[in-house]
Structure formats: structure tokens, C-alpha cells
Design goal:
Blueprint (H helix, E strand, L loop, with lengths): L4 E2 L41 H8 L2 H11 L7 H15 L14 H11 L18 E6 L3 E6 L12 H9 L7 E8 L2 E8 L26 E9 L11 H8 L5 H23 L1 H5 L3 E5 L5 H5 L13 E2 L21 H10 L2 E3 L3 H14 L25 H19 L2 H15 L17 H8 L2 H10 L34 H4 L3 H13 L1
Parallel strand pairs: 4-7, 7-8
Antiparallel strand pairs: 1-2, 2-3, 3-9, 4-5, 5-6
Helix pairs in contact: 2-4, 3-4, 12-13, 12-14, 14-15, 15-17
Length: 521
């Protein structure tokens, strides 16, 4: 240990991002640009594809969720560093057999921030090389030793790794103990193991070299172990029954009832075992748990739990694991997945590279890192003065209301109310041949065109014979053939400059009324 030095990656060649220009913020941090994001600190985009890609990104989803919880959004560089720290602490804990229960990185980040406020967010622009699950130490001339980062206390600074490693090598009374638990797919395996000899078991160096020293006891000893299995997961379907019930509703089949009973029994068995091992668990230096998000509640989230939710001894396995199924009929721990994980954690990784080889590896690794994306150009979020709509007078409001009622009655074919309305308001409207006002937004020009296009022959007859409406008023030049689609008119090929109410008629009955009127006059 005296010759070891922590090995750091060559970071002086790391590509640095240009410092992003300061974001011009306003009181509301919103943007009036169509190609921008109102949540992610007013970023702007070159085209609609870039904007859609941003809305699907984890960065945008994180800022939306954190804003909904009352937090402040972060920049892209800060978010990248948060994700890197999350991957460092969760690397390898996912299972190859179940992934449906796992939350994604965004949900995990939001949950962690809600649990404990992050007071030391890295500064923007600080280059950071992705952290490895293994910490490497160098021993001259060409030996490297790797140890999993999870073995060290949480939040250990890089400068203290070597001193912590020496502390872990120091024998203590009773030896160092770990608790290891794995649960997935109804299978459970748990063990209490001793990973170092007790101080009283250390073999002294014999004075007489000719005398053979006694054989030392093994450092790793399984003190207790237990496995169970319950039927909780449907074959070839995956996912627990409770998650399926929450997403699709409670199933009423016999198999579903058995799986619900299996989940409850497995939970009771595990908690009962934890209570039996409570004294040993309190003496453990590390507690390793491999479980999905929902299954972690079995260990932590209940009244009288043996393991507290915020216990700093809690760890996840920093490498991929399989289901905790024993390969032996007798459930011998040495053949189980749990023993493989124990061996992986306690076995030191050793490599032999020269300084030149290490430098070449570092340079190749740094070259393989993705190049930093150009930062979206922040836009000013100052409010643009919009023209206020002109306020109508009382007389103008009454006049517009009359027009709206008139066109509504013609469109719906309400002849009798229309006659009564016309007797009262004909003079204020302006006569039967008055041009429909532009503010209505209707491309039809006259009341007769509205009635003909709506297909009400009684109203067309009343307008022609009783009110003497002019059928020769041309249709607006903006009227297109597409607006006649769906009708029965056979005169759609007439040029728009010569089209009249007859060309807008969508039924034969309306055209017959117009033809008879033309013959009578």
C-alpha cells in the first residue's frame, strides 16, 4: 500500500466547451419566439426538427418535472453532470431479467432532488470525464490495481481514496461484515458474510523460520444465508402482479390471485428474515441490495424496518447481475449468483501497463468521447408590445350581434324566426342585397349566396320572391372549388369572376328555385 498512488485520467487534453453567453432573463423566464423553449432557460432553435428533438430530450423532461415541483431549471451542462453522477452510483445495478419496473434517469434524478436538496451543483463549463465504477491505483513500475468505488464511504474525495483503502485493510475486532440481499421474479437470496479476518485471528509472524506457521483462516466466510421462492410473476410475461394491477386494473383469474398471495408471502418472509438477522445487520459495514424500485420497499419502507431508508451503508451492485437463483438443489451459496457477486466485489482487479501504454489509452479514451454539442443560442425574453384590439362601442356590439343572429338563422334554415327578425331589423341591416361585412370572415358576399350554399330552398324562395334579392351578385374572388366540395352542383367549372348564388347551390331543389325565378322574370 505504501507504493500505491491514485491514478487519474489525463484531463489536460479534455476538450473544453466555450463558455456559454449569459442568458438574458426576465421576471417570468418566458420566450415569445415560436422556435424556443420557455422552460429550458429561453433556448432558441434553428428549425422545427431541432425544437421537436429538444422537447423529447431528457434535459427538457427534467426541467419540466422540476418546475412542476417548484424547483429551478438547469442548463444542459449542469444536467449532464447530474446524469453522470447518477450513472456512477447506479451503474450495473440493473437486471437482465426485469427492466419494466425501473424508473428512467429523469425520474430518479427528480426523486433524489426531492429527497435531499442538492447544495453543491457543479459549475457550468467545468469539464468532467465520465466516472468509472472502478477506482484505479498505480504501483510502479507497471502494475495497476482496481477496486470498486462502492466499497468506499459515500462522498469520499479523490484525495482520500488511498487513506480509506489503508483503513479498510486494518483488522478490527470481529472482522468486517457485509449484508447482501437480492430479490427478483419471486426469487430471494440473502447472506451475512465476513470479508476480513478479525484482529484476534491474525497469525503472528513466527520467530523460528523452520517452524511451519499455522494455516490462516479464510478472510471471506459466509456466516448466514437464506433463499426463498414464491410464485409472483407470470411465465414469459415479466413484471410483478401488483404493477400489472396498477396499470391495467386488478385481474380476477386464479393465477392472478396466486401471484398476489405470493407477493405478500415473499414480503412477509423477507421482513421476518431481516428481523431475525437484525443484530447482525446492525454490525455490518455495507448493506448491498439488488432489487427493483418497487421491491426496495420490502427492505426500507415500512414501520419498524431494520434498515433505515437514508442509511449510508446502503449500496447497489456496481455491475450487471442475474436473478438470485441457486444452481444447486441444496441451495449451496458457493454456486449461487450471490456468491459470484461477493467474489466480484472482493477480488482486486490487476493489470500491467507501462506509463506509455496508459497515456495512449487515456488519449484514445478522450478522443472517443462525444464532442460537445453547440449550445442553443439564448434569446432575449423581453416582452414584445402587441397591438391591443380596438374596443367596440355599444352600438357596434349590437350591430355585430344582429349580423351573427341573421346568418345563423339562414344557415340553420329557420324561416319563421328569420321573417320576424327581418321585419324589425331590415333597415338597420341595410337591405337584402347588402354586402356581408368583412369582419365576419365569410367569403360569401350576399344573404342569397349563404342560403343557396346552405341548401334551404324555402329561404331562397322567400329572398327571391318576397324580398327581391339580386341573384346576379358575383361570388367573392377568394372562393375556391374546394369550398364547394361535397355538393351536387354541376357548374363548378364556371370561372370564379362569373359565378353567382346558382353556382353555390348544393342541391337540385335550390337550383330549381333559381331557374324558375329566372324564367318568371
Amino acid at each position: 500500500l505504501d507504493t500505491l498512488t491514485p491514478r487519474n485520467l489525463v484531463t489536460n487534453q479534455t476538450a473544453r466547451r466555450d463558455p456559454s453567453p449569459p442568458v438574458v432573463a426576465t421576471k417570468e423566464q418566458t420566450s415569445t419566439s415560436a422556435r424556443s423553449c420557455n422552460v429550458c432557460l429561453g433556448t432558441a432553435f434553428a428549425d422545427i426538427d431541432e425544437q421537436r428533438s429538444h422537447f423529447r430530450s431528457d434535459w427538457h423532461r427534467y426541467n419540466v418535472k422540476i418546475r412542476l415541483k417548484g424547483g429551478d431549471p438547469v442548463s444542459e451542462s449542469v444536467f449532464a453532470q447530474l446524469v453522470e453522477g447518477l450513472e456512477d452510483s447506479l451503474s450495473g445495478s440493473a437486471s437482465e431479467d426485469e427492466t419494466a419496473d425501473e424508473s428512467d434517469a429523469v425520474d430518479t434524478l427528480v426523486t433524489r432532488i426531492k429527497r435531499s436538496a442538492l447544495s453543491d451543483i457543479p459549475e457550468e463549463g467545468t469539464p468532467k470525464v465520465p466516472a468509472s465504477a472502478i477506482i484505479w491505483f498505480h504501483s510502479p513500475p507497471a502494475t495497476q490495481i482496481g477496486i470498486y468505488r462502492m466499497l468506499f464511504p459515500l462522498e469520499t474525495p479523490a484525495a482520500a481514496y488511498l487513506s480509506e483503502l489503508k483503513e479498510m485493510q486494518t483488522p478490527i475486532e470481529g472482522g468486517r461484515k457485509w449484508a447482501m440481499f437480492m430479490v427478483a421474479g419471486g426469487h430471494f437470496a440473502g447472506a451475512i458474510v465476513r470479508v476480513s479476518r478479525a484482529a484476534e485471528e491474525e497469525v503472528p509472524v513466527p520467530v523460528n523460520a523452520r517452524k511451519k506457521p499455522p494455516k490462516p483462516k479464510p478472510e471471506t466466510i459466509v456466516m448466514k444465508h437464506k433463499t426463498f421462492h414464491r410464485y409472483t410473476t407470470r411465465r414469459k410475461q415479466g413484471g410483478s402482479q401488483s404493477i400489472n394491477d396498477n396499470s391495467k386494473g386488478a385481474a380476477i383469474s386464479a393465477g392472478a390471485m396466486l401471484r398476489r398471495y405470493g407477493e405478500q408471502a415473499l414480503r412477509d418472509d423477507i421482513r421476518g428474515l431481516l428481523q431475525d438477522w437484525a443484530e447482525d445487520i446492525r454490525e455490518c459495514e455495507r448493506i448491498w441490495i439488488r432489487a427493483s424500485v418497487s421491491n426496495r420497499r420490502i427492505f426500507l419502507d415500512y414501520d419498524g424496518c431494520v434498515i433505515n431508508k437514508g442509511d449510508d451503508r446502503l449500496r447497489t451492485f456496481p455491475f450487471p447481475t442475474r436473478r438470485p437463483v441457486s444452481l444447486s438443489v441444496l441451495h449451496v451459496l458457493t454456486q449461487s449468483e450471490l456468491s459470484r457477486c461477493l467474489l466480484e466485489l472482493t477480488q482486486v482487479k490487476i493489470s500491467h501497463y507501462t506509463e506509455e501504454d496508459l497515456r495512449e489509452q487515456d488519449e484514445a479514451f478522450l478522443a472517443s468521447l462525444p464532442k460537445p454539442k453547440p449550445q442553443p443560442t439564448p434569446v432575449s425574453t423581453t416582452d414584445i408590445a402587441k397591438p391591443k384590439p380596438q374596443r367596440l362601442t355599444k352600438e357596434e356590439e349590437i350591430y355585430r350581434e344582429k349580423w351573427s343572429r341573421l346568418l345563423d338563422m339562414i344557415t340553420k334554415g329557420r324561416l319563421e324566426p328569420l321573417k320576424s327578425f327581418w321585419e324589425r331589423e331590415a333597415e338597420s341591416i341595410g337591405g337584402v342585397n347588402v354586402v356581408i361585412p368583412e369582419w365576419i370572415g365569410d367569403r360569401r358576399v350576399s344573404l342569397l349566396q349563404v342560403a343557396a350554399q346552405s341548401g334551404h330552398e324555402e329561404i331562397v324562395r322567400w329572398l327571391l320572391y318576397d324580398l327581391r334579392a339580386d341573384p346576379t351578385i358575383p361570388v367573392s374572388a377568394g372562393w375556391t372549388k374546394a369550398e364547394d366540395a361535397g355538393g351536387e352542383s354541376d357548374t363548378s367549372d364556371v370561372p370564379s369572376s362569373r359565378r353567382t348564388a346558382y353556382d353555390l347551390a348544393r342541391s337540385r331543389a335550390v337550383r330549381d328555385v333559381l331557374r324558375r325565378c329566372a324564367a318568371d322574370h
